[in-house]
């Protein structure tokens, strides 16, 4: 009896050790499963629809293929007229992952698209006027530089004042202005959702859509006014280093 007690104690100790080992294995498995669950939640949570509440309903979100670079726009016209606005900043641009969005390319697209919209309503095309475009570009730059947005600048000068300070051959004169961004989510004109412009062609379409969705700007494009119809126009775009786009289109009826 006395000789068997040590053997009995050894067996009990081995059983206890095996029990502890099994408990440790179970604990490790449970910890691994818990970590996997937490990691899975962290990976999946950014895709939850709740994280998009600030964009409105799911219908507001546009998913699509990567846009193609801009096509070649129809050249608007003379880029180096004899008379220019001394405050014309020249070409500006912003680089996206698709292309370098150039102000001149946006101007060409805007001019062509405005003429397309006019044609849809039975109106003839407007001739590109480089001097008018230079005055428009200087105004777009001035709005960005002095951080305002309006037809009248901080000095009290309106569209016709700015043109007559450079030349005097327009009998009638009009102006449309617009503001948007490159490579940043903005509200789509007409309130149809959220859109991001990453090409010059897309920026131009967005600018013209802004005007066509505003009664006063649309009336200027389609000549719904009592003054003589336009026969020429110029577009001036300035793009800031941050990607903000200021656009002016001025209309002229020559004497």
Task: Kindly report how far apart the N and C termini lie.
Answer: 130 Å
Q: How many helical elements?
A: 6
Uncertain runs: 1-12, 27-63
Q: Over all CA atoms, what is the radius of gyration?
A: 33 Å
* Spatial strand order of the main sheet: 3-7-8-4
Q: Tell me the overall shape.
A: globular
The string of secondary-structure elements, in order, is: HEEHEHHEEEHHEE
Helix content: 25-40%
Task: Walk me through what this model shows.
- There is one protein chain.
- With 255 residues, this protein is α+β, with helices and mostly antiparallel strands.
- It contains six helices and eight strands, in the order H-E-E-H-E-H-H-E-E-E-H-H-E-E.
- The protein has helices at 5-44, 103-120, 130-146, 159-164, 200-212, 215-221; strands at 93-95, 100-102, 127-128, 170-181, 185-187, 194-196, 232-239, 244-254.
- The chain has a four-stranded mixed sheet with strand order 3-7-8-4. It has a two-stranded antiparallel sheet with strand order 1-2. The protein has a two-stranded antiparallel ribbon with strand order 5-6.
- A hairpin with a 4-residue loop joins strand 1 (93-95) and strand 2.
- The longest helix is centred in the first third of the chain and has 40 residues, at 5-44.
- The radius of gyration is 33 Å and the shape is globular.
- The model is unreliable at 1-12 and 27-63 (pLDDT under 50).
